[in-house]
């Protein structure tokens, strides 16, 4: 077989594939949200396909589409109320297709000047929206929030220990300490492991009733650690926690960081996008004081998985942290004042991730994003109101579209939440999760899908009434 396939074959493949994809995209809601899991069956299926010579291409494509239809939680479904996994917007899907055809190499600027400058432009524009100076903000697209948090940590280490790039851990004249709340994303702890600091370098600061980092406790820890001769290197505040979408008190934390010359990183993987609607800006007040910010594009900006961003107001830090010149890299850009992306990132060869965001913006504009962000927020309020109206108790406090709730007065709230959640998932009609608040699981519904409507929320609430409200006799 011709390795390129023939023009006729390509045409026919697209003609067969595209309608199937469109069918999925247009009618996702007709599917069960979650499949029944059967690992053995999947293993058998894969083992049963002989790859020695390959299949007819049409059959190959059909098998992939058939199995994705059957074997995945359909996160693009409007009744998916899960973690921050969006339905991807259509321009961003096409962006992936285009990037795969052209395969721009984002390591060296001179190989893909258009792609590199698009990403630079987005970093500056998005950075400016967070309150950074458009001319000096630096940043990079990452594979997601986890890589962005690791990048923030590495910047903090290079900031605290000027010889870190050369000496590594031997540059530590005092023990580095990292602070984040007990509600911070676990990628913070993972970053400490990857960086060679270890889990124990991360101090978990308790949270208040609203799941926000206790500023008093942070203050006490900073003082105690400094007195003990350690070096507070980094505080990671969260703007929109993964579980309950709580927003830490950024200005107060920023002030403490300044006092202790400690790098201030805000993990706004999900919540950061609220900045795109002028009205919601006050929720993130203080984020402009951060030394660096994590914000995911593949969450609230509704583009395919594998797109995050790290922003920093220090124009020299990424270079200082990552610049590892290599003689064999293309050097046509040497005389220009440009940045080779590989000198600013963990990754080397890199996909044109920014196109997913850029094409979305080219089609919808910043105003389109402001509208869709507002829609999510309003749908979140609508869910909160409907649940409260029917007697459910809302247990989290956030303006962001994440609602944690329970039925008041049940005997064993944790067990109750897990049972109801399982019933909802098993019904195939919706997907939600449980999240532990102060050690007890609660039901959690996040609005992650721009296509979710008020009618969908009504359906979810009816489903919960049916599957979740204890019969009057059980309740006594
Ligand atoms: C999702 C999330 C992360 C991790 O981001 P990935 O894109 O999954 O790598 C980090 N922090 C917070 C607050 C998140 O919600």
Provide structural commentary.
The chain has 476 residues and is of the alpha/beta class. The chain has a domain at 105-351: Type I PLP-dependent aspartate aminotransferase-like (Major domain) (Aspartate Aminotransferase, domain 2). It is 42% helix and 12% strand. Helix 8 links the parallel strand 2 (176-181) and strand 3 (202-205). The longest helix is centred in the last third of the chain and has 36 residues, at 354-389. The chain is globular. The model has no long low-confidence stretch (mean pLDDT 95). The structure holds pyridoxal-5'-phosphate. Residues 84, 144-146, 149, 185, 187, 238, 241-242, 267, 269-270, 296, 308 line the site of pyridoxal-5'-phosphate.
Summary, kept brief:
The protein has 476 residues and is α/β, with parallel strands linked by helices.
* Biggest β-sheet: strands ordered side by side in the sheet: 1-7-6-5-4-2-3
Structure annotation, total helices: 15
The CATH architecture of the domain at 105-351 can be given as 3-Layer(aba) Sandwich
Main beta-sheet annotation: 7 strands, mixed
Bound molecules: pyridoxal-5'-phosphate
Write out the CATH superfamily name of the domain at 105-351. Answer: Type I PLP-dependent aspartate aminotransferase-like (Major domain)
Sheet-strand content, in percent, reads 5-15%
CATH topology of the domain at 105-351: Aspartate Aminotransferase, domain 2
Name the helix and strand elements from N-terminus to C-terminus, one letter apiece: HHHHHEHHEHEHEHEEEHHEEHEEHH
* Coarse shape: globular
Alpha carbon gap, first and last residue = 71 Å
Structural class: alpha/beta
Unreliable parts? none
Radius of gyration: 24 Å
